[in-house]
Amino acid sequence: MRVDITQVRYLMAESCHRAGVPAESVELIVEHYLLGETQGKKSHGVAKFCFESQFFGDRQGSPRTVREHGALATVDARREIGPVSADYAVRAAADRACEWGVGIIGMINTQRYGVLYPWAERLARAGFLGIVMNTSRADSTVAGARTPFLGVNPLSYAVPTHDEPLVVDMSTTKSPMGVLWEARRNGTKLPDEAFVDADGEFTIDPHEAASAMVFGGHKGFAISLLIQIMTGSLFGFPMGDDVDSTWTTGYTFIAIDPSFGGSLDTFLDGNAELVRSMEGVATRDGRPLQIPGHRSRLLHRAVLASGELNIEDSVYRRLEARAAGDFTFD
What we know:
The chain contains ten helices and twelve strands. It is α+β, with helices and mostly antiparallel strands. The protein folds into two domains: 1-58 and 293-330, Hypothetical Oxidoreductase Yiak, Chain: A, domain 1, CATH 1.10.1530; 60-173 and 214-279, Malate/L-lactate/L-sulpholactate dehydrogenase, NADPH binding domain (Ribosomal Protein S8, Chain: A, domain 1). It has a seven-stranded mixed beta sheet, sandwiched between helices. Helix 4 (82-100) links the parallel strand 3 and strand 4. Helix 1 (5-18) packs across helix 10. The protein is globular and about 55 Å long.
């Protein structure tokens, strides 16, 4: 169904108020999830807001740094709402990067957020190389395996240029878990070869799916494994089967100040030239090379210009229920 963005924004804000979200945090939360929706990442947009909003009342207070040494620090988010705790972690990473050249923040005991890239992009817009990643419960596995043992382990990074930052946001699984959750709710099929059943066989039945499939064979496996370490054992956080809830899930935010390694202008010049070189790459079909982040940015602008969102009826009904104070309707 087509719905006015203003109405969706109102219902999301009303949901936050009903859940007791502090007034100063409402806009940050609403705009974060709306961004995922307007960029076509529907598993991380309004549908995820509706899912996560049932936990908004679980927050125990503002995040706080509980351990620090040099460039590294550990944050107890105190079950804060995901976009709010991520905002804290980004600022903490930037502060440490200004002092040490790099800031590496490990965060735990937080609610989830939507898309990763806005946090990396914020660091890039401040002049840093920004990297954001997180793990999850052991919801994914690799080709040929039957047992899930890795988190879904998404990764985003962003680098400043003289124009818009170059942004990458990717899952290390072929499809995010949000696709599975929505397929179960709506009775739709899963993408081909993205999920496996308990026997390790590919399935498109959301009720048979036991784990998500890591992308890229053994190379994707290696990347996912690195993220697991960076969001787990680096900070003494749980990994794999030891991640038993949202509250034991690890997040990592990294800010790198290029001025500590050379010249900021040189960094920007090099990144801008890199983007220009990709724009000039010849392709077989004559179409421009799809540079990471460009398609999402264009879609976002087009949706905002139209003033409307295309939302599944079932998702909109959930949003209306949340705005009415019902956080159990599913």
